[in-house]
């Protein structure tokens, strides 16, 4: 009798037994439903706010690369070349008008840039992966005021989950090469 192995029965509480019974009742169909719920969940959407030369664009790019989100830059003076190149490659109506504007050497209109941003924000890529929106609202007021741009952001189907507001960083090293007007509190251009 001493040579026979002794089997010890493990003790389980009632809650552990109920959890195990519930786990056994899960079928393959409910696993698929769980996967579909995860896939249909709203993706992460981030909005970066702040003054010029605070490093928000750099931070937004790094965040979008790390988390594989769509990067959208709303700066009217220099929107991301990706948005422009996509429309030029598609050769749609907006792409043709962009090509004419760029060939003539003129600056892009706020309306055209805002239209590109709107198309990108409502694209299937943003609906699937999420986005990082930088430099919107813009400070140009010829097409939409800042308040109208904020109302537009609020009415998006994919509203921002996180709003990152970067305070002014007044280091001379950071602002090196920029001409600023201290009386108007603006940066005039980059050198």
From TrEMBL:
SUPFAM superfamilies: P-loop containing nucleoside triphosphate hydrolases. The keyword rRNA-binding does not apply. It comes from the Eukaryota. Keywords: Kinase, Nucleotide-binding, Transferase. Gene3D superfamilies: P-loop containing nucleotide triphosphate hydrolases. Signal peptide: none annotated. GO terms for biological process: nucleobase-containing compound metabolic process. The keyword Magnesium does not apply. InterPro entries: Adenylat/UMP-CMP_kin (IPR000850), P-loop_NTPase (IPR027417). GO terms for molecular function: ATP binding; nucleobase-containing compound kinase activity. This is Adenylate kinase.
